[in-house]
Write a structure and sequence with these properties.
Blueprint (H helix, E strand, L loop, with lengths): L2 E9 L4 E4 L2 E4 L2 H7 L1 H4 L2 H4 L4 E12 L6 H14 L5 E5 L5 H11 E2 L5 E4 L12 H12 L12 E5 L2 E4 L4 E2 L8 E2 L7 E3 L3 E3 L13 E2 L7 E5 L7 H8 L5 E6 L11 H10 L3 E6 L15 H4 L4 E3 L5 H14 L2 H9 L8
Parallel strand pairs: 1-4, 1-5, 5-7, 7-8, 15-16, 16-17, 17-18
Antiparallel strand pairs: 2-3, 6-14, 8-9, 9-12, 10-11, 12-13
Bound molecules: aspartic acid (ASP).
Aspartic acid binds next to loops.
Length: 344
């Protein structure tokens, strides 16, 4: 069956070349000029019944330079091309890919088409690149109609034969081809010799029209508690009205060091409409407020939301997005809900 796929290149190692200053992204034209299969359209002609649209998010960057403004621009490109295409591929650097995939998952509500992020650990100019496999796999997921595969109507990451929910994934290796993992949620699909899609895990189609909200608050911090940590600096910042949200990365199941000024922090947050999203520093598992005595201080605070098993990337982007798009009175309710499958 005919299928149409939109591919947006944003930069990242996938298209990087060596320069005197280190690896830097090349243009899509340079990529096409280098790869004869792409240049002669052979590579894409293999998928002869897929119409590809190529686009570039200018300027192409190392993903360390991606900003919330770029999340909005990526979303706008998808929105502009949504009706004419069956699926979308974003080629992106791996460093902040999980932030972008989490952010996009919140931006788009009631998705009916796949938005697939991919990248590479070795540039396509390298003889052992993983970029070609990753892109090919992403084409199968985005061009699902042509391959008679089930649709994954979600923002997802396709990397090294796995498809992960975008807001469940974290970058876990700077080196391995398996660069991402999904510590608290099963993979949506595996692309081995056979392709397996775990349809029972997919977000359900709501039959509601696509809704796009793409404002992100910048007045948010991510704080990792450490032994002896005291929230003095946070109290100071919140009392000066500088923070609308704090992701508080607690110990284990939600514990904090005792004898510190936590109650003062929560009172100051209440006075300044600042919300705390409590998460765990552990890559696996969730917080369970009240399990240990040292988590009760969080359990009893009205400004604190239980982040359960959310990833650090999804926690930060969810907080930025909820604050950016909803009035204060609705924020705690929105943050407590599982919006796009980001928590169990
Ligand atoms: N620094 C690169 C980037 O995030 C790393 C990569 O793409 O693998 O753009």
């Amino acid at each position: 069956m005919q299928s149409s796929v939109y591919i947006l290149y944003t930069g990242g190692t996938f298209g990087m070349k060596n320069t005197t200053e280190g690896l830097q992204p090349s243009t899509w034209d340079e990529i096409i000029a280098y790869l004869p299969a792409i240049k002669n359209q052979n590579y894409f002609h293999y998928y002869s019944e897929i119409d590809f649209t190529f686009d570039t998010l200018e300027p192409v960057v190392d993903s360390s330079d991606i900003t919330p403004n770029d999340w909005q621009r990526i979303a706008q490109s998808i929105e502009k091309n949504y009706d004419q295409h069956d699926g979308f591929i974003i080629i992106h650097g791996t460093d902040t890919l999980a932030y972008t995939s989490s952010a996009l998952s919140f931006i788009f509500e009631h998705l009916t088409k796949p938005i697939v992020l991919t990248g590479a650990q070795l540039p396509i100019f390298h003889p052992r690149t993983d970029g070609i496999v990753n892109l090919s796999n992403a084409i199968y997921i985005a061009g699902y109609k042509h391959f008679s595969l089930p649709c994954i109507p979600e923002v997802c990451i396709c990397f090294n034969d796995d498809v992960l929910r975008g807001n469940r994934a974290v970058k876990t290796s700077t080196n391995d081809f398996e660069g991402f993992s999904s510590p608290n949620f099963d993979n949506l699909a595996h692309l081995e010799q056979n392709i397996t899609i775990n349809t029972h895990l997919l977000q359900k189609n709501t039959n509601l029209p696509l809704d796009i909200k793409s404002t992100f608050s910048h007045r948010v911090v991510n704080v990792t508690v450490f032994p002896g940590y005291n929230p003095e600096i946070l109290i100071d910042l919140v009392s000066k009205g500088k923070l609308e949200g704090i992701v508080l990365r607690t110990f284990g199941a939600g514990n904090l060091p005792s004898g510190k000024r936590w109650d003062d922090l929560f009172t100051t947050c209440k006075e300044n409409n600042t919300i705390i999203l409590a998460t765990t520093q552990c890559p696996n598992g969730k917080i369970e407020l009240g399990q240990y005595a040292l988590s009760n201080v969080l359990k009893n605070a009205v400004v604190v939301v239980d982040g359960k098993d959310i990833t650090p990337e999804a926690a930060l982007t969810k907080l930025m997005w909820v604050i950016g798009n909803y009035p204060y009175a609705e924020r705690i309710g929105m943050l407590s809900r599982n919006l796009r499958g980001e928590t169990s």
